């Protein structure tokens, strides 16, 4: 059986659900049992529940003549259904459009709702002409169990947000409806609840929800009063936002190469860069060539937890303490990861994360958060988040930003937080399965997680000298892939004024030349992982003959 979701025709429930007077057997009962055990996700349409209750009363009426007894048995059946099957909510506006266009309205509505579950869904029914309107497949329980019918597509997503949404749809809809009811769309109660739960999750005293991961970085740097004459050290192998915020404040980015094994900031190279800045000596470590080194004062280092793996914070903090610089953790990709027993967003003196939709914990738009144990810094960042607000919104004590997180995004994140630990576990399982499947492919270098660390696996990124051929093969096979990041920041036109040259950061440049990322999300199946790995391995081996 290949389907992940089965929507039950309500007529089947009475056949196989556990009414006391029968011992249900047969394919329908077997399919329901698979739903109970979680081998397939079973669904029942919300509008079918009333009909099931009425039919249950009639079914038990002969054996239970009293209305009270009928009520009890019908209620028992509904309780069982609601405990073991998910309730499929029907889209109201679209359903209304079916009125007058279908002679079997209930069936057409069920099919419409089922189609929102994606490609791997089938309606279980004994009716040979169930009205699907061409939206989804319908089959008997026996056909579904035997594999006589298969999903029409095997589409693979790089990040499957639809599958995740199906897992949390009832909670998600409830959370969003609550926001609609109270109408506090800016800094509503969900913001405070989210901040409390984020702080608890990370093990920090303060979490401040904001408009994006970029704003989270910017708020911390502004709170630290970073500006012209300050040097902020970071990796060139990351998304531009990390260094962009430095330049926006008039400070100077000073790039530090990565550890080629982890793609994260190299602590030894950081020490060399700080010594070079103190000595104003670029022979110790590459420094900006078009800035006045005499005016630069090291102030902050921003390690990036690339692809979900924490940087080596013990070593980085030791170097930072020795040179007197502040450590701001860029955890935009690593929320939920673990470093030696500590969660990310608690590893620096402050941290910033992103809730961009593709992140391990993502909203349905832009969002981010600042984390710190420093009450004064938290208070200042909260002021900066709302135009430098003081005692009220018309009391402005500093120049700030409009960097608030929307209440609706907080509601979405709260729904996702409920399944986040399980999703992290599944991400690690997916990564392990990829690594095992690619272990026999010498042309591809799989990622390494040092002892004592757990990655959040924002991406599963590998290295190969045969990247171009492999990417072509993946595309031909309908498998999405991506390259993070094809050009390091020190070679980007946006930072050309710094005067860095090719060859300054060889590990970053080598990674950019060879790296690519495979589909990664908690809902990848073993078959999909094997398909990806087989395509990669075959393309890598084929390159030997080209």
Number of separate strands: 17
Q: Please tell me what the overall shape is.
A: globular
Helix content class = 40-55%
The CATH architecture of the largest domain can be named as: 3-Layer(aba) Sandwich
The secondary structure category is alpha/beta
Which parts are unreliable, with pLDDT below 50 for 5 consecutive residues or more? 19-23
The portion of residues forming beta strands comes to 5-15%
- From the N-terminal CA to the C-terminal CA, the straight-line distance is 39 Å
Strand order of the largest sheet: 6-14-13-10-9-7-8
- Count of separate DSSP helical elements: 19
| CATH fold description of the largest domain | Aspartate Aminotransferase, domain 2
CATH class division of the largest domain: Alpha Beta
CATH homologous superfamily (4th level) name of the largest domain = Type I PLP-dependent aspartate aminotransferase-like (Major domain)
Largest sheet: 7 strands, mixed
Based on the model shown, name its key terms.
alpha/beta; Rossmann fold; 546 residues; globular; Aspartate Aminotransferase, domain 2; 3 domains; 19 helices; 7-stranded mixed beta sheet; 5-stranded parallel beta sheet; Aspartate Aminotransferase, domain 1
Describe the overall structure.
This protein has 19 helices and 17 strands. It is an alpha/beta fold and 546 residues long. It folds into three domains: 5-146, 5'-nuclease (Rossmann fold, 3-Layer(aba) Sandwich); 167-417, Aspartate Aminotransferase, domain 2; 420-545, Aspartate Aminotransferase, domain 1 (Alpha-Beta Complex), CATH 3.90.1150. A seven-stranded mixed β-sheet has the order 6-14-13-10-9-7-8, sandwiched between helices. Strands 3-2-1-4-5 form a five-stranded parallel β-sheet, sandwiched between helices. It has a three-stranded antiparallel β-sheet with strand order 12-11-15, with no helix packed on it.
């Amino acid at each position: 059986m290949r389907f992940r979701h089965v929507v039950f025709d309500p007529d089947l429930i009475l056949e196989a659900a556990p009414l006391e007077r029968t011992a249900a057997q047969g394919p329908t009962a077997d399919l329901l049992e698979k739903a109970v055990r979680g081998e397939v996700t079973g669904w029942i349409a919300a509008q079918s529940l009333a009909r099931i209750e009425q039919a249950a009363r009639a079914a038990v009426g002969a054996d239970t003549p009293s209305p009270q007894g009928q009520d009890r048995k019908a209620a028992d059946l509904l309780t069982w259904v609601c405990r073991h099957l998910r309730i499929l909510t029907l889209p109201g506006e679209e359903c209304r459009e079916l009125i007058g266009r279908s002679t079997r309205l209930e069936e057409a509505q069920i099919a419409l709702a089922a189609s929102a579950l994606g490609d791997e869904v089938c309606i279980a029914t004994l009716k040979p002409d169930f009205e699907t309107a061409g939206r989804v497949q319908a089959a008997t329980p026996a056909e579904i169990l035997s594999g006589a019918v298969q999903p029409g597509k095997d589409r693979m997503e790089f990040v499957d947000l639809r599958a995740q949404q199906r897992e949390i749809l009832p909670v998600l809809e409830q959370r969003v409806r609550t926001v609609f009811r109270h109408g506090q769309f800016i800094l509503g109660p969900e913001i405070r609840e989210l901040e409390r739960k984020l702080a608890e999750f990370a093990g920090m005293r303060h979490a401040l929800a904001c408009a994006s991961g970029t704003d989270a970085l910017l708020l911390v740097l502004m709170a630290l009063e970073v500006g012209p004459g300050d040097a902020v050290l970071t990796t060139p192998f990351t998304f531009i936002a990390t260094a962009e915020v430095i330049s926006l404040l008039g400070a100077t980015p000073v790039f530090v190469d990565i550890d080629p094994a982890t793609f994260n900031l190299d602590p030894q190279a950081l020490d060399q860069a700080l010594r070079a800045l103190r000595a104003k000596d670029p022979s110790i470590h590459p420094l900006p060539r078009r800035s006045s080194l005499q005016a630069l004062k090291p102030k902050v280092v921003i390690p990036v937890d690339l692809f979900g793996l924490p940087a080596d914070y013990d070593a980085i903090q030791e170097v930072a303490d020795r040179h007197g610089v502040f450590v701001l953790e860029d955890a935009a990709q690593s929320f939920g990861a673990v470093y030696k027993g500590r969660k990310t967003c608690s590893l620096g003196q402050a941290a910033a994360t992103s809730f961009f939709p593709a992140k391990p914990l993502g909203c349905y738009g832009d969002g981010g958060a600042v984390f710190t144990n420093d009450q004064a810094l938290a208070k200042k960042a909260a002021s900066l988040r709302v135009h430098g607000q003081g005692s009220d919104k018309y009391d402005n004590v500093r120049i700030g930003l409009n960097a608030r997180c929307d209440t609706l995004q907080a509601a979405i994140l709260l729904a996702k937080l409920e399944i986040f630990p399980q999703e992290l576990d599944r991400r690690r399982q997916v990564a392990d399965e990829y690594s095992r499947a690619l272990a026999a492919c010498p042309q591809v270098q799989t990622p390494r997680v040092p002892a004592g660390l757990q990655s959040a696996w924002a991406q599963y990124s590998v290295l190969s000298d045969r990247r171009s051929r492999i990417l072509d093969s993946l595309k031909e096979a309908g498998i999405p892939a991506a390259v993070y990041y094809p050009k390091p920041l020190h070679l980007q036109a946006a930072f050309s004024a710094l005067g860095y040259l090719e060859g300054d950061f060889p590990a970053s440049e080598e990674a950019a030349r060879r790296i690519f990322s495979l589909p990664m999300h908690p809902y990848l199946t073993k078959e999909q992982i094997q398909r990806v790995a087989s395509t990669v391995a075959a393309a890598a081996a084929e390159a030997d003959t080209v």
